[in-house]
Specification:
about 475 residues, alpha+beta, 22-stranded antiparallel β-sheet, about 45% strand, globular
Length: about 475
């Protein structure tokens, strides 16, 4: 057999085996995608209304409708009104007004509850090993959001013929993948208020490993501008989100790693009322979570480079805080248990059993909350707070005795404020100028008294003090505090 014949034989063998490989890959991809929906069934927030999967040799189509139960989300407000009991014949009120219809009253109460939101989407799936002959992998997927005619018509006014949202995914044979979401830029004038809206688009990529052990995200949105006919203008520019995290333990939602979110600027201008105008520049939020010897540490830093509000300018605002020495296995366990409650009060009550189980381990590690700094630069100098609070020598039984628990808490707070800021805080709640001045004078007198007693240190326009709570005693600048 010559080389040409051998090459043809190899090509024929590969061509013959490719349908089988594609069919087998399609079967695995179907199991992966339907498994995701099966997991959604156990969520208190998501209900799988429809699941239709049509698998072919080289491609498949998955048609799914999910229902989000908004009433179950934590923080969602539920009606406090009792549902009226059914009555055979409503009694007429004594004032002669029409009797209340129990059915109508029930309908009114139910109308106040958040309605479930349905999301209908279709996945068009190309099977591997060469999905769509555009690279190697288990599958490539194009996702279409199915909208009703009215929604399509409204979006067409903004996006024209462009798709408002494009979603594509690639799945690897290792169980991971990458999802890309994009939204095009647009310029439009809203019909109702004639506001001019300019959106510069959005792109987001999310990569994930097998069983979502590793997740990374990269999002960019250049900006949004809204101009009203009366001259008001709202703008934000340069949104960016980056993150690279890994699960601390399998099948938990406790993640380690770093994230960074930034916004170049946010501003609102009102030419008619200058006091309502504001500007924020260089906003940044970072988080860093790590694990050592099963102890979880996390530091979050939020900062703003410049703030202009009420015609006052401030700079270098920082809010940096975190936790140390949290027993990570216990944290993961109670976090997972909490996520399964769905905000249900009855299920939330059952969390006490989980807490009673993990509390001894959490407490014996002496967990600590810390405020690295809460600071801002003012015209009179920097105002700053920093401190820590930790539990020392506590047991789970101490939680049943508040007085014992107080004696196990050790905390300290370092405070530096400007005289001007303290005086303003003293009169901030008063609107009458004379009463405000009197309140500010009273605050200044109180500060002077504390300076004389050594509770406050004064250095120019700066006031500072160290407040400590230890073994049930409060001290200020090392002195027992009493008014």
């Amino acid at each position: 057999m010559n080389k040409s014949t051998k090459l043809i034989a190899v090509v024929v063998a590969l061509a013959a085996s490719y349908p089988a490989a594609s069919w087998y890959t399609g079967k695995r991809v179907e199991a992966k995608l339907t498994e995701s929906n099966d997991q959604a069934k156990s969520s208190p927030y998501v209900k799988v209304v429809k699941q239709d999967y049509k698998r072919g040799v080289f491609s498949s189509v998955q048609d799914t409708t999910l229902e989000l139960t908004l009433a179950n989300f934590p923080g969602a407000k539920k009606s406090d009104l009792p549902l009226p009991e059914a009555a055979e014949t409503p009694e007429a009120p004594a004032d002669g007004s029409a009797p209340v219809d129990p059915a109508a009253a029930t309908a009114n109460v139910e109308a106040k509850e958040p309605k479930p939101l349905q999301i209908h989407f279709i996945n068009y799936i190309q099977h591997g090993p060469l999905p769509g002959f555009a690279g190697f992998g288990a599958a490539s997927i194009k996702t279409e959001l199915v909208l009703d005619a009215e929604s399509k018509a409204e979006l067409a006014k903004v996006f024209g013929n462009a798709s408002p949202l494009e979603i594509s995914s690639r799945l690897s044979y290792g169980g991971g993948g990458r999802v890309t979401v994009s939204s095009p830029a647009f310029n439009t004038v809203l019909e109702k208020d004639q506001e001019k809206v300019a959106w510069q688009g959005l792109k987001m990529e999310v990569g994930f490993g097998k069983d979502y052990k590793d997740v990374n995200i990269n999002l960019n949105a250049p900006g949004l501008t809204i101009d009203t006919p009366d001259g008001k203008a709202f703008k934000f520019a340069g949104i960016s989100v980056k993150g690279d995290v890994s699960a601390a333990y399998p099948a938990t939602n406790l993640y380690l790693g770093k994230t960074e979110s930034t916004i170049a600027s946010i501003s609102f201008a009102d030419p008619a009322e200058a006091k309502k105008s504001f500007t924020l520049e260089q906003l940044k939020l970072t988080t860093d979570a790590n694990l050592k010897d099963d102890l979880f540490d996390m530091l979050a830093k939020f900062g703003i480079g410049k703030v202009v509000i009420d015609q006052q300018t401030y700079s270098d605002f920082h809010y940096d805080y975190g936790v140390r020495r949290l027993h990570a296995p216990s944290l993961a366990k109670i976090s997972t248990a909490y996520s399964k409650t769905g905000g249900d009060p009855e299920k939330m009550a059952a969390l006490k059993t989980v807490w009673d189980e993990v509390a001894p381990l959490v407490l014996q590690k002496e967990p600590e909350l810390f405020l690295d700094r809460l600071s801002v630069m003012t015209p009179d100098g920097e105002a700053k707070l920093s401190g820590t609070a930790k539990v020392v020598g506590a047991t789970a039984a101490d939680f049943n005795n508040p007085m014992l628990m107080l004696s196990k808490i050790q905390s300290s707070l370092d405070v530096t404020l400007t005289e001007g800021l303290v005086a303003k805080l003293g009169g901030a709640s008063q609107k009458d100028p004379d009463i405000q001045k009197a309140a500010m004078d009273a605050m200044n007198q109180q500060v002077s008294a504390f300076v004389e007693r050594g509770y406050i240190n004064k250095n120019g326009k700066l006031l500072s003090s160290k407040i400590e709570w230890k073994q049930g005693n409060l001290t200020v600048n090392g002195k027992p505090f009493s008014r």
